[in-house]
Amino acid sequence: MTSEGVSNCCGEAEEKEDDNEDMAMGCYDDDDDDDFSALTEGNPEWGSEDGVLGFNEGLSGEVKPRVLLMGLRRSGKSSIQKVVFHKMSPNETLFLESTNKICREDVSSSSFVSFQIWDFPGQIDFFDPTFDYEMIFRGTGALIFVIDSQDDYVEALSRLHLTVTRAYKVNPDIHFEVFIHKVDGLSDDHKIEKQGDIRKRASDDLADARLERIHLSFYLTSIYDHSIFEAFSKVVQKLIPQLPTLENLLNIFISNSGIEKAFLFDVVSKIYIATDSSPVDMQTYELCCDMIDVVIDISCIYGMKDKELSDHKQSPKLSPIQVSRLTQLALREPATLLCLFVSFYKVILKGTFLSSPNIDIYRLYYILSLRYQ
Ligand SMILES: Nc1nc2c(ncn2[C@@H]2O[C@H](COP(=O)(O)OP(=O)(O)OP(=O)(O)O)[C@@H](O)[C@H]2O)c(=O)[nH]1
């Protein structure tokens, strides 16, 4: 795992408190060359004043899909971004100041995870004529609309409707994702009830506008548990063109081994970018996230230098963690900052343990490293 410098999304210097954080934040760069001026002309509040580069294109001409974070003020947009991509602890988000300009950040930690995330200020009127929303929506892959479930959501729903219908007109290929956020304060029954109500009202609004074809996906999220990582995983997966191939590889992998479940993780964000087709059990996912934290912590203390790391990669070893009598977790790094996570049962046959499906793990490891590194 490598680490690179990072500055935060609004261009402020960000202090990295420790090595762990360095590593965790390794690949999220803000482009110094803010290209918002073209979009925000006439309203300096909305973007940086300098920068004239083409929209969303670096010097290489590579175009990354854009993920927009929108929603009312204080709904939790910046907190989500900071917790998922900057390893900020949820309690620290209490001290976040209100965002007053669009914050754009490049997220490109591996061959698969490569997109831009744009955090919009809640109070922004992006339908102001001086604001080029068509340009914004044209290059957008996913629009995440955050609704504060602990607040009255009537206004949020009308804003959601306005945003989605405008965006759809410009770009019908956008994935519309609704995060019903801050559900940590709600009981399970209450969560389901809220989700049902929000889903129904949003669908009714679309039906009234004869726009039933717009598909909204709903997620119950909180920064205080793994739900936000899971939801973000699902959003990001939709932007990965190789997803079917990866899922297929993982299906073959588990069907040829004693493994119960396999995830391909982006280590930096703990987003899983693919998994086999068996259902995702939240508890396994959480265990995998915890193991990533443990491995990152330990490698920060006892980490290897680059040379040792490359030697290590040539002879990969499993380092399983026993989480219960029958279940082990194992982590491998098939490509820089990507890890394959497997959870497998030891199969007990007449008292014999059949475990360690190493050959399959190595095979997948090599396939992935050869193809995508
Ligand atoms: N209970 C709870 N509070 C949250 C959660 N996510 C964010 N918050 C809190 O919500 C408040 C607002 O969060 P922000 O991230 O600043 O909200 P924002 O949408 O970026 O706000 P603007 O920048 O004004 O648009 C903060 O006090 C966060 O700690 C969550 O999942 N649960």
Put simply, the count of helices is 11
Mean pLDDT: 72
Helix content: 25-40%
The total count of strands amounts to: 14
Overall geometry comes to globular
Task: Output the strand order for the largest sheet.
Answer: 1-3-4-2-5-6-7
Strand content: 15-25%
User: What's the helix-strand series?
Assistant: HEHEHEEHEHEHEHHEEHHEEEEEH
Biggest sheet overview: 7 strands, mixed
Evaluate the radius of gyration: 21 Å
- Distinct ligands: guanosine-5'-triphosphate
Characterise the protein shown here.
- This protein has 373 residues and is of the alpha/beta class.
- It has 11 helices and 14 strands.
- The strands form 3 sheets. The protein has a 7-stranded mixed β-sheet, sandwiched between helices.
- Strand 10 (321-322) and strand 11 form a beta hairpin.
- Helix 5 (154-170) packs across helix 6.
- The longest helix has 21 residues, at 188-208.
- It is globular and about 55 Å long.
- The model is unreliable at 1-61, 314-318, 344-362 and 367-373 (pLDDT under 50).
- Guanosine-5'-triphosphate binds at residues 71, 73-79, 93-94, 96, 98-99, 121-122, 181-182, 184-185, 222-224.
